[in-house]
Structure formats: C-alpha cells, structure tokens
Amino acid sequence: MLLCAVCNGIRMLDLVCPACSYAAEDYGRASDWNGPYAPYEPIEFEDMFAATQLEDVPVCRHSAYCSHCSHTFVVEVVME
Ligand SMILES: [Zn+2]
Ligand SMILES: [Zn+2]
After folding, report:
1. Which domain of life is it from (predicted)?
2. Domain span at residue 31?
3. Is 76 helix (H, G, I), strand (E, B) or coil?
C-alpha cells in the first residue's frame, strides 16, 4: 500500500526555497489547500491516485511556503 510518509507523520519534509535557499515550510497537501491541515489523519489512497494518475511515479503534492521571501511552490513527495 502506498502512503505519503509526510502526510502520515512518519517523516518531516526538509525543504529549501528554490528562490532564496532558505528553509521553507510544508503547508500540507496541495489538494487540501482550502481544508484544515491534519497531518496525522490517514489519507485515503483512492483520492491520491485520482489526483496523480498521470504520473509515472505516485507522488503526493505538497504546498510549501518560504517565510523569508514569501515564495510558494509545490513539492512532490514520492509515496512509498
Ligand atoms: Zn503528502
Ligand atoms: Zn525563499
């Protein structure tokens, strides 16, 4: 079964802002942008597969934000 280790609280994302190289923060799944961020809730695989079925490798897209330069970007976490 494929899981995003970050969404399930198994590990933290170690993010670097591509614009300024400062540490950036994980803002949760990109598809959950409008919802509450609940990192320890199990994620249903079917939802994620529907969102990523065009990818060769199943990934979970995370929104990230750099508080240093206000840059937002998407990080793809490979599910394992
Ligand atoms: Zn995730
Ligand atoms: Zn930045």
Report:
1. Bacteria
2. 15-78
3. strand
Residues listed for the chain: 80
Contact yes or no for 8/62 (Cβ under 8 A) = no
Query: Ligand 1: distance of its center to the CA of 72 in Å?
Result: 16
Residue pLDDT, tens place only, 18-35: 999 999 999 988 865 444
What are the phi and psi torsion angles at 35 (to 5°)?
-100, 175
Q: How far apart are the CA of 46 and the centre of ligand 1, in A?
A: 14
Summarize pLDDT for 62-78 with one digit per residue, the tens.
999 999 999 999 999 99
Confirm whether 27 is domain-assigned.
Answer: yes
Number of domains present in the structure of the chain: 1
Q: Give me the DSSP letters along 19-38.
A: TT-SEEEEEEEGGGTTS---
